[in-house]
Structure formats: structure tokens, C-alpha cells
UniProtKB/TrEMBL annotation:
Span of the signal peptide: 1-28
Domain of life: Bacteria
PANTHER family named in the record: BLR1237 PROTEIN, TRICARBOXYLATE-BINDING PROTEIN
Protein name, per record: Tripartite tricarboxylate transporter substrate binding protein
Matching SUPFAM superfamilies: Periplasmic binding protein-like II
Organism: Falsigemmobacter intermedius
Family as reported in the entry's similarity comment: Belongs to the UPF0065 (bug) family.
Keywords: Signal
Length: 333
């Protein structure tokens, strides 16, 4: 109880002291003034199920963006095909800014695996990177694995293999996270894919999984209620809101902390450069001036990571190379 109260107090304190940054100036070129580019309700397509981390991000972003552009932003969940259903819907939309989609690092994995030959980075316009976050390895509160060392020791000799679940098929961000851990620690596992974060937590609590890969924002309430145990965090340092959870490297496992989740916004290919900049400017204004967004970011243990179109596109190309390296190393391509 005291740990939960302390964590909530920490989050409230962080929100209270979080400065709101100045909004960027308007872009007025060829009629695409920032915040006036949307002429009707905007559709924002999410590739995962309601309740997942990506879905929560989509809805929080939509809520923050609406007052900035003076239009409704409707979130559509187009699940299936590990993101390919969403990408197909986006690619088929008109390049006018009225249809956008969210992306995660899993999109880069899919482009090298199931989506190879069907979709590519250059099939879309990369509008903005918005946030980043790390990964936890999670077990039930009554699990026999009290520490990450317990899980690793058992996994090295387990027959059958441990069932570890997470969002997405092999090659997804969550799957690569667990593969990086397993590769560094020297064990194998059976991956059980789920469409979203809530589903695999439900399966974990129901006893059909031994462990899960989770992002911070989907586990806070489960951790505070004492239903799950966090064994370790893949990051360069501990999260302030979970100071008791050591990083993998602190626990003697040299798992690469650079592998992080990212979330951004993409659009159909072919937007005018001025329109891309205007949409990105609106996103930046929304995420730097919205108090509800600031509370969501703090409460969910997320890090701001804004990049505009040009910088984001260059980052995606670099991250795609890193993703491909890991996919090859883990024999996923």
C-alpha cells in the first residue's frame, strides 16, 4: 500500500512541476497554416486492439490534437496482419492530411518480415516521432520466479519451453525485446503473440503464460494492485516511478538497452512538404501544451521524443537498419 501511494505521489508531483513549453510558430506557406490544415474530421488509424499501449497513445494524441486543429480526430482500430491491415488502409487513403496513422517500432520489423515486398518505408510519409519507452519482463505476483535470475535459470533447462507472451508476431517490438533478453541470458522460449497489451496481461493472470513483455504504461495499475511482479527493465537506467526494478544490465545480463519502443504519426505517400510540416507543427503544439497529455506521459512513464518530418524520416532509415540487424541475428529473416 505505501509503495503504491508513494508512486502516485511521485507522479502527481512530476505533473505539477512539468513546464509547458512554448508552442511553435505557425507555418504559412501555400495555404497550409499550422493548425488550419484539417478541413473536416481527421481519421487516425491504429494497428492494435483497444486498450493496448498503441491504442492508448492514439486516443491521448487525438484528444490533445482536437483543440489545436479545431476538428474531431476519430481513432479507428484496424487490427490484423501484424499491422499490414492498417498500412493497407493508410496507403489507399488520399494524401490530403485527413487520414493519418500511428506507427511503432514494430512497423519497421514488419516491413522486413511479413510485409516485405508489399510495403516499404518509402510507401508512407513519416510525419513526426512523438514518444519513446522501454520494456519490462513481467510475471504474476504468485509466480515461482521471484527474480529475473530465477526465470533465466529455469528457462535454460525448461522442457517444455517457457511460454512468454506479448504484442505482435515474431519480429514485433515486444518479441525482439524478449529475444534480446534471451540471447544475452542464454535461454530459449516459446513466443505467444497477442493483438494488444491487455490481452497478454489477462492471459498471464489466468495462468496460460509464464511471463510477458510489457511497456510501462500498460502495467501501472496491475503493479500498484499487487497482481504482477516486475523482474527487470530494458533501459539504460531505472524508471523513477519504479525505482525498485533493476535494469537487465544491473542484474548481470548484457541486453542492449538501446532497443526502445517509439511511437509516431505517418501519412499516405505524397503529402505536400508544407502540409507535412503543418501537421507536424500541430502535433508538436498539442503534445507540448496539453496538460492532459502531460499527465498521460508522466503517469505512463513515457519519454518525449519529438522529431519533425525530415529528422524522423532519417531516424526511421537508421532504426530500420538496426531492426534488420537484430532480425538477422535472431534468425527471423
Amino acid at each position: 500500500m505505501s509503495q503504491s501511494l508513494t508512486r502516485r505521489g511521485l507522479l502527481r508531483s512530476a505533473v505539477a512541476t512539468l513546464p509547458l513549453l512554448a508552442a511553435p510558430s505557425l507555418i504559412a506557406s501555400r495555404g497550409f497554416a499550422a493548425d488550419t490544415w484539417a478541413k473536416k474530421p481527421v481519421t487516425l488509424i491504429c494497428h492494435t486492439a483497444p486498450g493496448s499501449a498503441a491504442d492508448i497513445y492514439s486516443r491521448e494524441l487525438a484528444a490533445a490534437l482536437e483543440p489545436v486543429i479545431s476538428q474531431t480526430v476519430v481513432v479507428e482500430n484496424r487490427t490484423g496482419g501484424n499491422g499490414m491491415v492498417q498500412m493497407a488502409a493508410l496507403r489507399g487513403a488520399k494524401a490530403d492530411g485527413q487520414t493519418l496513422a500511428i506507427n511503432t517500432v514494430s512497423h519497421l520489423s514488419i516491413l522486413h518480415t511479413a510485409g516485405k515486398g508489399t510495403f516499404g518505408i518509402e510507401d508512407f510519409d513519416w510525419i513526426a516521432r512523438v514518444q519513446t519507452e522501454g520494456f519490462f519482463t513481467v510475471v504474476r505476483a504468485d509466480s515461482p520466479f521471484n527474480t529475473l535470475a530465477d526465470l533465466v535459470a529455469h528457462a535454460k533447462t525448461a522442457q517444455p519451453l517457457l511460454n512468454i507472451g506479448g504484442q505482435g508476431a515474431p519480429g514485433s517490438a515486444h518479441n525482439i525485446h524478449t529475444n534480446i533478453l534471451a540471447d544475452a541470458a542464454g535461454f530459449q522460449f516459446n513466443w505467444i503473440p497477442f493483438p494488444g497489451g491487455i490481452e497478454h496481461l489477462t492471459a498471464l493472470l489466468g495462468g496460460s503464460l509464464d511471463a510477458t513483455s510489457n511497456n510501462p504504461q500498460t502495467i501501472v495499475q496491475f503493479a500498484e494492485s499487487g497482481r504482477i511482479r516486475l523482474l527487470g527493465y530494458q533501459g539504460s537506467e531505472r524508471l523513477a516511478s519504479f525505482p525498485e526494478v533493476a535494469t537487465y544490465r544491473e542484474q548481470g545480463i548484457d541486453a542492449d538497452p538501446a532497443w526502445q519502443q517509439m511511437r509516431g504519426v505517418i501519412a499516405p505517400k505524397g503529402l505536400a512538404p508544407e502540409l507535412k510540416e503543418a501537421i507536424a507543427s500541430s502535433i508538436r503544439t498539442a503534445t507540448e501544451t496539453s496538460e492532459p497529455w502531460a499527465k498521460y506521459m508522466t503517469a505512463s512513464n513515457l519519454s518525449a521524443g519529438y522529431m519533425g518530418p525530415e529528422e524522423y524520416h532519417a531516424f526511421v532509415l537508421r532504426q530500420s537498419d538496426v531492426t534488420l540487424t537484430w532480425l538477422k541475428r535472431l534468425s527471423l529473416v
